[in-house]
Design goal:
The chain has 346 residues and is of the alpha+beta class. Helices cover 63% and strands 8% of the residues.
Length: 346
């Protein structure tokens, strides 16, 4: 059960009231605004937002791309829009015969699966689309742990590094923002992901260089296995990216789902840094393998969010988001083709 609070200027009250005719709601009239408080089953929250979409916008303003319940919130920004408020929360419990009858009437009483509202999905990605010092520190620690595991040829330590690696976040956010057509934030996610990978390579190179003065470093099988690029790894990365998005949509914890991303990305990136110091001739192969995994994971993640029908509500935004997805996938396909050719030449 969800509690939905919607506050709008008075001139939009009647429009919204008609939308809520079949729901349980109360009205609080204020001097300049009206606040609706609704109690709706979880299963129809997304449908409610869809029916409300566009009802509280200024009719004279063209509709831009936006991924929330108020399509023109970013462009209008007048005094009335300061009043507009959408809030969704989960009460401890609600006892309402009306709500139970509503669920039966709409056929949701036996529905086991409900769709997560796009607003909630976007909210979960916001922290990954911004530079977070703590996540970079965590990625650095994961890289150092992976270096230890690789030199000790200990798969358990390498898996431990994967468990603490935060590499899933930027890829997940990137896929979601591509799906809603937000290229500005998509580019920011690519920048964050690129910086993380570059940091892992740099830390591995510096750590390897420092350790080489202390002890003899052996090229273990775990290291050498990450210096053999193959087109099959691209397919594996695409499948891992797709599966990870599906897993997240089913409520599997990020720490578990993220292991798949880290397994494909963390060790090759670290091996790239190691090879730059110990055997430069293998660094190109390790770098190609890393790029294969990065591109494959991104492609698979985008395919995954598309399969899950994640996208904006606005019709015009949907059209533009499909164009963005198509262009991005074609671009990724070209890069994948290029990497496949290189893998055969190396």
């Amino acid at each position: 059960m969800k509690k939905v609070v919607i506050e709008v200027p008075k001139d939009r009250t009647e429009i919204l009231q008609a939308k809520f005719a079949d729901t349980l709601y109360s009205i609080d009239e204020k001097e300049r605004s009206t606040r609706f408080t609704l109690y709706v089953p979880d299963e129809i929250v997304d449908d409610l937002i869809g029916r409300t979409n566009g009802s509280i916008k200024e009719p004279s303003v063209s509709r831009p791309i936006w991924q929330g319940i108020i399509p023109d919130y970013e462009s209008i920004m007048n005094e009335d829009d300061r009043i507009t408020l959408i809030e969704v929360s989960t009460p401890d419990f609600i006892i309402s015969p009306f709500v139970e009858k509503l669920k039966k009437k709409l056929g949701y009483i036996d529905q086991k699966e409900d769709k997560t509202p796009i607003e909630k999905i976007i909210a979960t990605t916001e922290t990954y689309s911004k530079f977070d010092q703590n996540k970079f520190i965590l990625a650095a620690i994961a890289g150092i742990v992976a270096i230890i595991g690789l030199f000790l040829n200990n798969i358990g330590i390498i898996i431990g590094a994967m468990l603490i690696s935060p590499l899933l976040g930027p890829i997940y956010a990137l896929a979601v923002y591509v799906a809603i057509g937000d290229m500005k934030t998509t580019l920011r996610c690519i920048e964050i992901l690129g910086l993380m990978v570059l940091m892992l390579v740099s830390i591995a190179a510096v750590a390897t260089f420092a350790l080489s003065f202390v002890t003899d470093l052996a090229l273990t099988s775990e290291i050498l296995s990450r210096t053999d690029p193959n087109a099959v790894f691209i397919l594996m990365a695409v499948l891992l990216g797709f599966a990870t998005m599906i897993a997240l949509s089913k409520g599997i914890p990020e720490g578990i789902a993220g292991v798949a991303i880290a397994a494909a990305l963390l060790p090759p990136a670290v091996v790239t840094g190691i090879s730059l110091v110990l055997f430069p001739s293998g660094s190109v192969k390790a770098m190609v393998l890393t790029l294969q995994n990065v591109v494959g994971l991104i492609a698979g993640s985008i395919i995954g969010v598309t399969f899950l029908h994640i996208g904006p509500r606005d019709l015009f935004a949907k059209i533009q988001s499909r164009q963005v997805i198509t262009r991005v996938l074609w671009f990724l396909a070209i890069i994948i083709g290029f990497l496949v050719i290189i893998s055969f030449l190396l």
